[in-house]
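Protocol step 4 of 6: structure prediction from sequence.
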Amino acid sequence: MNVQHYGSSNTRIRRLQQQRDQLHDELGLLQREARELHQLIRHQQASLRALNQTLSTGVSLTLIRGGRHDKQAGKPESGNHLTIINARGMIKNVQS
């Protein structure tokens, strides 16, 4: 009887470990989605700041959304890079 008891305990332990691993994987996915949403929010905030500047100064701005390349990681760097060109051709770079 004790052998069956231990066997069921081991089964329960394995099942709990599998559930833990699955929850850990789901947490990783949620954290990645949260980072992507945070990046999108920062981009939107930068766009709103530029729009607010346009409305408050009356200067026409052109927004160019671009990404700089992170040479060490071999991928685009996190955050957003905006280039703002005003009516006089002055360029301002904004990193959000």
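Step 5 (inspection) to follow. The mean pLDDT is 73.
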